[in-house]
Amino acid sequence: MLGLGGGGLPAGVAAPGRLTPFVRRHQLGARMMTNLVLGAGFHASGAKPVDGSAYERYIGRWSRMFVPTLLASAEVSEGDLVLDVATGTGEAAVLARALVGRSGFIVASDISPTMLATASDRMAPGPFGAVVADGEALPFRDDAFGAVFCHLGLMFFQSPKRGLAEFRRVVRPERRVAACVISNAEKAPIWGFLAEALSQQLPAERSTLFLSFSLAEEARLRQLMLDVGFRDVRVVRERQEGFVASFEEYWDAVEQGVGMMPQAYRALPAVAQRSVRASVRRCLSGFKSGNGYQLGVEMLVASGRR
Predict the structure, then answer these.
(1) Does residue 180 form part of some domain?
(2) Which residues does the chain have with pLDDT short of 50?
(3) Which residues sit opposite 25 in a β-bridge?
(4) Does residue 1 lie in a domain region?
(5) What does DSSP say about strands 81-85 and 105-110: parallel, antiparallel, or unpaired?
(6) Which pLDDT score, from 0 to 100, does residue 9 have?
(7) Distance CA 76, CA 40 (A)
(8) What is the distance between the alpha carbons of residues 34 and 23, in angstroms, rounded to a whole number?
(9) Structural domain containing residue 152
(10) Which of 5, 7, 34, 248 sits a CA distance of 20 to 30 A from 299?
(11) What secondary structure does DSSP assign to 41-70, as a single string?
(12) Helical pair 189-201 and 270-284, crossing angle rounded to 10 deg
C-alpha cells in the first residue's frame, strides 16, 4: 500500500501549496469535504447534485464501452499510481480500480465539484483520492504517475495542447498517457442530432455546441500529442453500438439537464424546446428498430509515451 500524504493522496504526489483547498477524500473509509472553489465545467450545473440516472442514460452507457480501450492504451497495470483527468462521474476510474488492485492508487480530478462528488460516491472504500483541479494546470508534481488517462474531457479544454502537455509533465518517463474523444457528429448521432437542432435555435453558439466533436480529426489529434513531446503516438478508432428502448427514455435524460447540450436546451423558451425535440425525433427515425433505436457511436483513443 502506498504511503499517504496531504489530502489522503500518496506522499509526494501533490505539488507544494497547490492542493489543500481542493481536496475531497474518500480513502479507506475516511471522507472529508473541504472548500471546493473551482468552476462547474461543462457537464454539471452549479452546486446542484448530478442526476446519476440521467447521466447514465445520456452519456455513461455509451462512454463505458470505450473505457477498456482507453485503459489498455494507457497501459494501466497492477500496482500503478494513476491519474484520471476530467473524471466526470468516474466511469474510467471505476474500471481502472480492478486493474491497479489494492497495491495501486487512483487519483481522480475534475474541474466540477459536483461531478467529482458523484465519482467519489461511486468508489468503494479503498485506494482512491479525488481532487478538484483544472486539467490544464494540474496541482501535481512532475513524474508523479505511472499512467494518465482522460475520458471524454480533452475536447472541452480551452487548450487541448496545454492539457496534453500537463498530462505529459505528471506522468513518469517511459509511461503512457491516453485520451478518448468523440468522433464527428455524423458518427455519434445520439449527440450529433441534438447539437445540430440546438444550433438552429442558437446559431451564435454553434462552435460551443459542437465542442464534443472538436477533436474528431485523427491527424490533428496525433499532431497535438507529437507537438508536446510524446513518442510512439497511436490513434485508434473504435465503434460501438447500443439500443435505446424509446425516444422518451432518451429525451428524459436531456430534460434533466445533465450535460452541456441539455443545459442549453433547458435554457430555451418552451416553443424552441418543442422545435428541438421534434427535430431530434425526426432525425432519429432513420435508426428505428422495433419500438426503439439501434445507434452507433465512434470514438478515437489517442495515446503516447513520454
Answers:
(1) yes
(2) 20-42, 45
(3) 32, 129
(4) no
(5) parallel
(6) 76
(7) 28
(8) 6
(9) 6-305
(10) 248
(11) TTTS-TTSPP-HHHHIIIIIHHHGGGHHHH
(12) 140
